Amino acid sequence: FTLFGLGYLGAFQYFLYFKCFPRWFPGKSLMSTAKCVAFDQTINTGIWYYPLFYVVQDAVMNGKFDADTLSDGSERYMRNIVTDMVNCW
Question: How far apart are CA 46 and CA 61, in angstroms?
């Protein structure tokens, strides 16, 4: 999980928040801020972070990364997505 934290939470989110968001949502208005938050809480968290988290967690817990890892992680994501997204907000 250290590499996951460093890679996703460190490198990718730095790139996303400091390089992409200013281009995608320029300015410091309330509307721009609301768009950033909406994107972060839906696309970034719900579509990028959680699926990757569950696949990596499954790989770490089972000590392997193969097609079953992708399938099992994806299934857990689909089972938990509603609860995860509610908790995220």
Answer: 22
Joined tokens for residue 43: 């696309």
Cα angle at 74 between 39 and 84, to 5 degrees? 50
81 with 50: CB under 8 angstroms? yes
Helices (H), 13-49: 13-15, 21-24, 30-39
Q: What is the pLDDT of residues 34-47, one digit of tens each?
A: 999 999 999 999 99
Q: What is the identity of the amino acid at 72?
A: D
Hey, how many other C-beta atoms are within 10 angstroms of the C-beta on 15?
11
